[in-house]
Amino acid sequence: MPSKPHFSKSLFSFLRELAANNRKSWFESNRDRYLREVREPAQRFISDFGPHLKHISRHFVADPRPVGGSMFRIYRDVRFSREKSPYKTHVGIQFRHIDARNAHTPGFYLHLEPDEVFVAAGIWHPDGPTTRRIRERIVSDASGWKRAIWNADFQDRFEMTGERLQRPPRGFDPAHPLVEDLMWKDFTAYSPLTEADVVRGGFLERFSDLCRIGAPLNRWLCRSLNLSY
Hints:
Order of helices and strands: HHHEEEHHHEHEHH
Distance between the termini: 30 Å
Number of domains: 1
Number of helices: 9
Number of strands: 5
CATH class: Alpha Beta
Radius of gyration: 18 Å
Low-confidence stretches: none
CATH architecture: 2-Layer Sandwich
CATH topology: BirA Bifunctional Protein, domain 2
Mean pLDDT: 95
Strand content: 5-15%
């Protein structure tokens, strides 16, 4: 039997209103709504996904804590940004590797934003040494890389996305058969969904299925970085 919905239309309504009223006074007046309609449903979803995640890999974590857990904080870091709006207008949930110290590590991700909902797998904005290790592994394990992202299920549901170099990376053969893959700066894949998908019953199982389909990418990345999978 499909699981009951964790999220409701009120989550997206709250985020739309927040986008139109992105200031501290409005948020504080609506803090109870945020807790009831956004944070608490997300925490329940994270907790309920935990057993499913263990079947995908026991080395990734579903942590429902409101701070330091799988759910990103609603507060924006405006220290180095020209955009000074204090709050994010989306919900970001990342199930990252148990050995991770930050968000820039292999993981599974759920993005909930009005008119932009997606599931992602992979590693976003890896640092320079990590990026080089991944590229070197693409060269040395080209067949494994192709199995991870070129299999039929993955190709049917996911597409690679992220930032790219304008030209082949220094130190790599520009004529390499996988040069287009070597030019990625992010090694992530995403699968778009809709708000309607999120608020109907069975979304937990659908998300789990997508994570299983995206798992070969994370497995390959973990092996490239000497992380357990």
